[in-house]
Each structure stands twice: as C-alpha cells, then as structure tokens.
Amino acid sequence: MLAIQSIISKIQSLFKKLGHTKTITNQSKSNFKVSRFTIRFKLISIISLIVFLALGVMILFTSIFFNDAIRLRIQENNLSLITVLGNHIESELKKIRQSSKIVVQSIKNSNNSFKQNEFFQENNSYLYIGLGSLKKGIFRTTHEVYNEKFFANSALSKQKIRLSYQKSREYIRQTKGDFYVVYNASMDEIPIIALSYQYASQIVVVYFRLENLIDALQKSVTGLGDVFAVDKKGKVILHKNSAIIIGHANFLKLAIVKKMLESHSGAKTGQISYTHKNTSYMGSYRLLNIGNLGLIATIDADLVFQPVKKIQFNNLLIVAIVLCLSIIIVFYFSKTITTPIIELATGTEQIEKGNYDISLNPIYKDEVGQLTSSFNMMAVGLGEREKMKDAFGKFVNKEVAERVLRGEVKLGGEEKEVAVFFSDLRGFTAMSEKMSPENVVQFLNAYFTDMVRCVIDTTGVVDKYIGDAIMAHWGAIGGKCDITQNAINAALMMRTALIAFNKRHKGHFPPTRMGCGINTGPVISGQIGSDVRLEYTVIGDAVNLASRIEALNKPFATDILISADSYKKVKNIYKFAKMPSIQVKGKTEPQKIYTVLGHKDDPNCPANMDAVRKLCGIPWNGPIKKSASEKEEKFKIIS
Predict the structure, then answer these.
(1) 38: in domain
(2) Could you count the other beta carbons within 10 Å of the beta carbon of residue 539?
C-alpha cells in the first residue's frame, strides 16, 4: 500500500489548484434553476438599453433646446417685425395728419395758392379731407376737398363718403385733443382707413387708401405668418389681405387680441402662444402710440415646427437604425462569449456524468479562452483524481479513500463505538495445498469479490485482508446508526453468498465454509503506523474480542457468532441460539456469546443450530473444550 500521508498531501494540493474548496451537494444542485434569460439576451438588452437611453436622452434634450431656440427666435422676429411695421404705420399716420393739416389750413384760410388737383395727383392715396364739427352728435363739414380724378375712375362718390362718416360718427365723437381716431372706412371693394383728429375747435376727417401699407405688409410677412392691425374693439384696420379689411372683419375672439386689449394700459408689447380652430399659433403684439391701435404678428407654430418634427423623426429613425445595428453587432459579438460558455456548460455536464476525457478548443485568446484552457486542465486533473481515487479505493476502502481525498480523515486516532467483524475460511490451508498458486489466487479473488460486496452494501468498511480472512467494521467512517444490525446483515448476506458461491463453482473449486465473529464496542480509529507507512484501521480490546469470537466458530461448528454487547443491541431483531460461556485470554470475566440463526421476520429462517449446520454443510462432532493450539490457551469453554 502507498503512503497515505503522501497521497493526501498530493491530492489536497491538486484540489487547491482545481479550486475545489467545498463539495457541491446534490441538494444545492437540485435547487439550481437555469434562467430563461441567457447571457446573449442580457448583453443585447443591456447594450440596447444603453444605446437607446444615450441617444434618446441626447435627442430629447437637443429637441427641447432646439424647440426653445426656434421659439425664442420666432418671438424675436415677430417682435422685431411689428416694431419696424409699427414705426412705419405711426410714421404714415403722422404724415397723413401733417399733410392733411396743411390742406385744411389752406382751404380754411381761402388761400388761393393751394392747388387741389396737384395735391391729390402727388398724394393719390388721399381720397377725402373734411373740416367740420359735431352738432348734436352729427358731423357737419364746413370745408372739404375730394380726389376728383379717383372718384371719376371709380364707383366712389362724395355722397358715399359723407354717408360713411355719418355712420362712423361714433368714432368721430372720440376725437379730443391730440388723440388720433383711426377706423376702418372701406367701401366699394376699396380698403380705406379714416383718420380724425382735432384742429383748433374743429375736427378733421381724412379718408386714405391702404394699398401702399398693404404692399408694405405683404413684402414684410412670410407665407407662414400674418400681420394685422386692429382697433380697441378688435376690428381689423390693416391686413395683408385686402378682402379682410373690406369685409370689416373683427378678430376680438382671438386670444392674442384679447390679451393685447387687456394690457392696453400696461405693457406696450407682449408675446403669447395660443390655439385657434385646432391650429397652434405663436404671436407678438405692440400697442401703437397713435389711434389706439394694436399691431399683431402671428405665425403658424405647426408649420414652423414641422421641420423640427421632421428632424426629430429622422433622429428617431437614426436611433432605430443604430439600435438595430447595435443589436446585430452585439448578437454576433455575443457569440464569441456565449458559444465558448455553452461549450463549457456542455463540458461541465459531461464531467458531472463522469466523462473526464473531454477537451475544448479555445477559439479566442481572451479571458474566455483562458477559462477554456483552465477547464481543460481541470478536466485532466479531475480525471487523474478519479483514476487515483479508483486506484486508491482498490487498496483502501472506497469510502475511506473519498474521505481522505476530501481531507475529512484526521491524522492520528479518535475513539468511536464500532461493530467489528472477522471472517475466516475453514480448511483453507489444506485446500490450498491441493491447488496451484494460480488457482489459489483465482479462488480468493472470486471469494473476496462476493464477500466484500456484502460489506459494502451494508455501508461497512473492509479494513484489511489477512490471508484468507477479512476484517471489516461499521461506524468508524460515516454514520453510527444501526452499526451492529448492519454488521449482522452483512454476515447473513455472506452466508447466502457463500452457499451460492459453492453451487456456482462446484467442480471447479472445492466446497468451502467460513466463520464470522462480531463484537460491538469502543475502539481507536484512524491512521496508524509510522512516518513511512500509514494504515487506516481500528484497534482496541473490542477488536481482539471479535477475533477471539470468530475463532470459536470452529469448536462450536457455527458460522456467525456475536458477543453479548452486540446481542443486547439487536436481540429483538434476530433469532439467536445461546452458546456456552467462554473464558477468553485477556478477559477475567466469562464471555457470553450467541450464534445468529436469521431474521425474525424471515419465513425461511433456520429454526435451530442444526438447521444452520445442515444449510451451510458444517459437520458437528461435539464441542472442543480447548483451543487448537497446545502451546497457548486462547479460550476455554466453562459452561
């Protein structure tokens, strides 16, 4: 036998290299459940989520900042536009007042130097200038001039002008001091504004065509926007679409008009976003200093932000494309990880099944490749360990070998209660003299194979072979439950196995008989020997007594004898025959022994010792009073 201490150190060193720090139990293995989410799925999900979040957050904030920048720029453009147009309109209104005031001064003072035709020819937008006063709420003129040439070429007439300002006397009544009154006086498909202001104690009314101002609006406003002027009642005074002016449209219902009129006495400018007829608008307004007018610039927000939405859609499309490309790239990249891992998992399953002759090819020279290479080394190491365990188990009990390999067997000894078993073949010396050495070895191998299986099947440990004898024990390794019962069961199984052995080898080997001795008691178990050679065994008085009891099978013509200590533990399980008490060397007190007939619940259990002798072919010539050795008395039958 090899030196166990050396074997232990080598195997423990191998275990440390292989990383076997603890044994995986069947229970922990059965509790493990494979997840539905594979590594490839997790990689694709995590990277896709990172890409989606990164691009999504970037696009979100870019869109927000871009929208805010465009909104601010539109509002600034609107405000700048109405500021320029407002200054232009105020300038035109002041110019109208100044020019009309010169005309009024000329016609009031009967200044013959005023040339009416030349004035209207140079100022073709002027239609009518009248000077008068309010009498009983009705405007009555004292002096008036007309654009005769325009009237001649249109349906417009002096009578319509007079009728118009009579209908608009509500506006004329508001004329006080330096306050301008401006209102829509369009007629006959001609966009016209009327301007009234106080001159001395009288009122001047001017009718003015809007073509020039409309042209200025049309040139200033883009296709997406709209600019118009309204009075304090929301009536349109100026618009790029002359039809709206001619139709005397009222925009009071617009949110931006309401907002402007509500702030008439507050801020002169403002901005607002609103919805009208399911369309979103962005608008700016400015209150003019003349005529109690307000100038408003609006733009269709949906149309303005349509390019922005298109950009956002394109960005989302880019995100989708990048995400798909990422998934494809990660999918194929993950194969470089998952494929070797799947191979490792498959290889691990093969190792679990006991197939250690497996070698994986490291495809990539990365950490996974390093792991694959380590797996191959581990498989080789485990295979060598298994071969070592199998080889070791042929020289030492397999249970002992496995516990030694796991480092569970302590150096030295420890006291335990053990059931010790000895068996011996009867007449083997004489039988072996008639057989060749090869047949002797063949016979012993066949015999030990059947007998040892009985010991292993009852969780026993074969301690050693002593020639044709077997020493075994129960309880030194493993659990302590029913050790005596297991030892007796093994002996009964050996009885049956030996009968079958003799029948099976009849004619080839001579018939043989055996004797078994069992004793239960305290022993010292452990690794015993020198620093050169160690042996796992049990020693103690209980071992010696079991050996002495086994020797009594010959004088008593029995096959299974047990001590009184063993009998007390199993007396209700088996049928026994009490044998005469004996005096054993080394013992001062007489020893009671019992022969085992069989299980109480076995219907084929022999009824007495004669039936056992007949079953096993044991001759009986009466008990021998002393041991066979004449030099030394090992036992003495005293009763």
Answers:
(1) no
(2) 13
Q: Do 246 and 238 touch, CB atoms closer than 8 A? A: no
Torsion angle in degrees (nearest 10) through CA of 275, 279, 284, 288: -90
In angstroms, the Cα distances linking 135 to 142, 161, 173, 202, 391 are 12, 18, 10, 11, 137
| Strand ranges (E), 232-376 | 236-239, 269-276, 279-287, 294-300
Residue with tokens 């090992």: 634
State what percent of residues in the chain have pLDDT above 90.
19
> Domain end: 374, 399, 424, which one?
399
- Residue 82: pLDDT above 60? yes
Tokens for 416, please give them: 């335990």
For residue 324, the enclosing domain spans 310-399
CB atoms within 10 A of CB 278: 6
Q: Is residue 55 in some structural domain?
A: no
Q: What's the domain count of the chain?
A: 3
What pLDDT does residue 31 have?
60
- Claim to verify: residue 499 and residue 351 sit in the same structural domain: no
Please count the other Cβ atoms lying within 10 Å of the Cβ belonging to residue 291: 23
The amino acid at residue 576 is F
Where does the pLDDT of residue 618 fall: very low under 50, low under 70, confident under 90, or very high at 90 and above? confident
Strand 593-599 with 294-300, pairing: unpaired
Residues 100 and 85 in one domain: yes
Amino acid at 521: G
Q: In this structure, is residue 248 part of a structural domain? A: yes
pLDDT, tens digit (0-9, with 9 covering 90-100), for 539-557: 999 999 999 999 888 888 8
The CATH number assigned to the domain holding 104 equals 3.30.450.20
| Geometric angle at alpha carbon 512, from 508 and 515, rounded to 5° | 155
Other Cβ atoms less than 10 A from the Cβ of 2: the count is: 13
Quick check: 418 and 473 in contact, CB under 8 A? yes
The CATH number of residue 527's host domain is 3.30.70.1230
Q: Do 110 and 78 reside in the same domain of the chain?
A: yes
Same domain, 540 and 632: yes
If asked whether residues 381 and 456 sit together in one domain, one would say no
User: For a pLDDT cut of 70, what percent of the chain falls above it?
Assistant: 85
Of 551, 619, 630, residue with least CA distance to 591: 551
Q: Is 600 exposed, middle or buried (0-12, 13-18, 19+ CB in 10 A)?
A: exposed
Say yes or no: 231 and 349 in one domain: no
Tokens of 24: 């995986």
- Report the pLDDT value the prediction gives residue 377, as an integer from 0 to 100: 86
Alpha-carbon distance of 497 to 147, in angstroms, equals 145
- My answer on whether 448 and 550 are in the same domain is yes
Mean pLDDT in residue range 272-294: 86
Least Cα distance to 582 among 611, 558, 613, 610 occurs for 558
Question: Taking the CA atoms of the chain, what radius of gyration do you get in angstroms?
Answer: 61
Evaluate whether 255 touches 276 at the Cβ level (below 8 Å).
Answer: yes
If pLDDT is split at 50, 70 and 90, which confidence band does 3 have? very low
Q: Which long-range contacts (CB under 8 A, 24 or more apart) does 324-330 make?
A: 326/47, 326/48, 326/51, 327/44, 327/48, 330/43, 330/44, 330/47, 330/48
Determine, yes or no, domain membership for 582: yes
**CB distance 409 to 403 below 8 Å:** yes
Task: Kindly report, residue by residue over 239-282, the tens digit of the pLDDT.
Answer: 988 899 999 999 999 998 988 888 755 568 888 888 888 888 88
